[in-house]
Amino acid sequence: AIRDAVEAHFGADAPLAGRRALVTSGPTHEPIDPVRYIANRASGRQGHAVAAALARLGADTTLVTGPTAEPDPAGVTVRHVESAREMLTACEAALPVDVAVCAAAVGDWRAAEEAAHKCKREGRDAWALELVQNPDILARLSQPGANRPPLVVGFAAETDAVVANARAKRARKGCDWIVANDVAPGTGTFGGAHNTVHLITGDDAEPEAWPRLAKTDVAERLAARIADSLGEGS
Amino acid sequence: AIRDAVEAHFGADAPLAGRRALVTSGPTHEPIDPVRYIANRASGRQGHAVAAALARLGADTTLVTGPTAEPDPAGVTVRHVESAREMLTACEAALPVDVAVCAAAVGDWRAAEEAAHKCKREGRDAWALELVQNPDILARLSQPGANRPPLVVGFAAETDAVVANARAKRARKGCDWIVANDVAPGTGTFGGAHNTVHLITGDDAEPEAWPRLAKTDVAERLAARIADSLGEGS
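YS: structure for the whole thing
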């Protein structure tokens, strides 16, 4: 129905008609034992909005999301996952795509071993919880190879030195663009309806400072930029 | 309005009229850094239902709850908290009460130090997250003293040996009653609408096995038992 409406609006000229998009969104939950897990404050609002905006421009869009209160966007294929490892598997299953937008706040760390039983507090005053690194989904999708999307966009949630940290992240992960957002306490970005971002599109490109916008408007602008970029390349 | 309706229904004879009740509910979120936290799968459904049931029997009820998707129950004073330490402070501020029902799944552990900045993954492959014990709210409320509620009821979320573990918990915490529920994976208790519980009211009392009930029905039965018990004592 969404695709019909897009085609009705754009005719055969929907900017992303015939394109495939993958978007990740939300937090991940990394289990410690049957009842406890490590989570983060991402709400999924931004990622879900990006998936909806790409679908509205005609892209065949898959959204891979961790647990959130956000409803599934209309016209988008949604895969629900909990952990980072499940998210990576679902992303790889969605390839090949023309653009991947990694907006999820993937937990960097998970418990080295998930306990089969609830860990009791008795018998120890302190506990050194052994954590190991999760797979780095943005870096994996950015790796050169036959399935590497032509455009990979990461999000960088930073609490300080936002642009500098985001530039370094772009280089380290190997992605093409980074959307840097300030999630410092007090900004209200995590869980809120607005976002203040910088878009970094290349080594030499000046970071573009976008004004404070509704997350839906950030999504629309980003989707339009993606359509422009893929249009140039075709 | 709720109290008016209660009085209209029971006249001056609302079973818990003139009584004060404290209920805890939900999970706690224990911060690791500005974006990450340790959580658990408690939904708050059972605790919120107990608070609503006590209020309907006429009790002046305070609900102290961690982050949940449950709406605030009507006719109940609700205090919203995140961490176990915040929950303890809010509980102590609600004393004195005639009955305290600790239905929250309080995180046993918190990070020894909350990082001021987001902890980066770079530079280490593993991370031993130092955890320390949180205050034990049920044990604190059960400690003898002038403010000790006449009736303290705990919940025990167990994944195995449910009754034996719950009996041991009752003795260890010093509470009067324990409601033992089975939260093993597959029971659907955490986050679900139903609960299968045992009520343990004393050292020598046989555990009462309640049938599988809606959490609202578990709450009604428990509130009625509390009203009977406080009625005997007055």
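YS: worth flagging: Residues 2-233 of chain A form a domain with the Rossmann fold fold (CATH 3.40.50.10300).
IM: good catch. Also Chain A touches chain B through 42 residues (CB under 8 Å).
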